[in-house]
Each structure stands twice: as C-alpha cells, then as structure tokens.
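Technical note accompanying the year-one report. For the benefit of new consortium partners, we illustrate the data format agreed upon in the data management plan: each record pairs a sequence with a structure-token string. No post-processing was applied to the example shown here.
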Amino acid sequence: MKKYIFGFLFLVLTSYIVPPKDKLEQLLLPKINHTEMNTLGLIGGTSWHSTVDYYKTINQSVNDYYGNNTNPPLLVYTLNQAEVHRFQIEDKWDSIANMLVVAAINLNKAGATSVLFCANTPHKVFDVVQKQLDFPVIHIADATAKAIHEKGLKKVLFIGTRYSMEETFVTKRIEDNGIEVLVPKEKKEINELHRIIQEELTYGTVTKESKEYVLGIIKKSIAQGAEGVILGCTEFPLMIFQEDLAVPIFNTTEIHSKAGVDYILKN
C-alpha cells in the first residue's frame, strides 16, 4: 500500500516541479494589458507602399515583445499622395501642413496620443504642424540620429527626395546630434534620385538600372569617407538592402517604426 501512495505522491510532485514546455513558456510571457500601451497614429499614404512597411514592422515588433499575436492600438490615416505631389510641385507646403494637421487631429480624436509621418519629406513642415497640436509628433531624424550613435559612426551619406537633399529639415537635425551628413552635390544626381522615387518607387516599381544608379552614388560617397548611408526616403528600402553594401544602412522606415514601438510600449 505504501508503495502505491509514494508512487502517487511522486507523480503529483513532479507534475508541479517540471511543467510542460508550452505551459512554462506561457508563464514566462509578459502579462498582456492593453492599458499599458499607448495608442499611436500613423499618417501614411506617402507612399502607401512604405506605410505598409510601417504597419507591418510595428505590429511584428509588438508581437515579438509579447511572444504571441498581441497587436498594438494602432491607427492609420492615409493621405492622397497625388494631391501631396501636386502641392509639392506648386510649392504649396502650407497646404501639405494643413493636410497633416487635419490627419493628426482626426487620429487624436480617434484615440491616438502621438502620431508620426510615414515619410521623410513631410518633416519639412514638422515645426508648423507640431505648433498646432497639443500632443507629440515623433520625428524621424531624432530616431535616425540615435541609431547612428548606437553604431558609433560620425559621418554618413543621406539620400532622399530633392526636397530633403537640397534643404536641411532632416539633415540638420541629425547634424545637431554631432553627426556629419553628406548629400549628393551634383544637380543631375539629385534630380535622378528624386525621379526614381517619384516615378518608380512610389508605384512599387524597382528596376535593375535604377538600383545600380543608386548604388553607384552610395559607393562614390563611401570612397569619400562615408561610414554608412541613411535611406532618407522611406521607399529606398524597397530597392537597397544591407547585403548590397559593406557599410551600415540606416533604414529610416524601420528606425522610425521602432521609435513608434517604443512609444507604444512606453519604453
């Protein structure tokens, strides 16, 4: 009789000491509490291809954090890119700023406590937009500068639209963090990079010739001392990958998305 009693006790005790693997993993996962997450708004559509990458990266990162399919409280407002491009050509940046303000306010009314622009170029009117809001906009340059510092680099190349290469609304904010930023100087290079973005990448089109052209500009800058390259248009990651180069690539889509994740998780 004692033999059976001891056998039964042994089974009971060992079932508590060594729980099944799936039960153990559940015990080790963070407790899921949506009130612990901030609600973030994405102002996308410029282009929708890169906006999809923002949405995917943010959701996947939160899934990875919780170790399951927990999704974040994330809202998306899509701008009309054709209208944005028209205002750019007509130099009506005040109209673009108004579009962003309207989008941000609508996202805030829906519950977002912070927003981000899913592209570099809209940051040209960042200050104008931020002044009209009583909640924060997460700046792409701040997140990028932090990522560059983490790699210990001091000099990088920046490529993007004509507006972001010829003006300093992104590059100066990075330089203010003690990083030297190079940009293409030749007008024909600036125009061709802009054309590739506007006429190809925003439509999801990637050609071998255009990719070789962009890589040629990057490699020329590396020869001039660039230690890394900022893909300062959120469409460039559709074309240029880390395996294409020997120096670090700073994918602003991914970097900015991760800054959004930090906000959501209150890190």
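Partners are asked to follow this layout when depositing records. The domain at 141-252 is CATH 3.40.50.1860 (Rossmann fold).
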